Amino acid sequence: MLDKCKQIARRADLDPGGFTLRKFRSTYATRMLRAGFDPRTVQHWMGHKSLETTTRYLAPAKDVHAKLDQVEIAGVLAE
């Protein structure tokens, strides 16, 4: 699978060195946690011995602050 991803990256003029199995694992864990899956379940899927290892993937998305700034709450005036 990794070889296929690297081939696709080359055809798209992307650096194939940026595609690693670890990156796919990290992306999977992050997406599952952000989708609302229980951290203990994700811990089991990832094979982590410690829940602390799994919770490292709970970092907020980089664009979360920009999205929060756009939220309007009824009855609250924007400053």
Structure notes:
- The protein is mostly helical.
- The chain has one domain (2-69).
- It is 54% helix and 0% strand.
Q: Helices and strands in order, then pairings?
A:
Layout: H1 2-11, H2 21-34, H3 39-46, H4 51-55, H5 64-69
Question: What is the 3D form?
Answer: flat
Strand content: under 5%
**Overall number of structural domains:** 1
Count every helix, treating DSSP H or I runs of 4 or more residues as helices.
5
Mean of pLDDT: 84
Radius of gyration: 18 Å
Indicate the percent of residues in helices: 40-55%
The total count of strands amounts to 0
What is the terminal-to-terminal distance? 50 Å
**Uncertain segments:** none
What class would the helix/strand composition place it in?
mainly alpha
Q: How are helices and strands ordered from N to C? A: HHHHH
The largest β sheet comes out as:
none
Give a quick summary of the entry.
The chain has 79 residues and is mainly alpha-helical. The protein has helices at residues 2-11, 21-34, 39-46, 51-55, 64-69.
Key traits:
mainly alpha
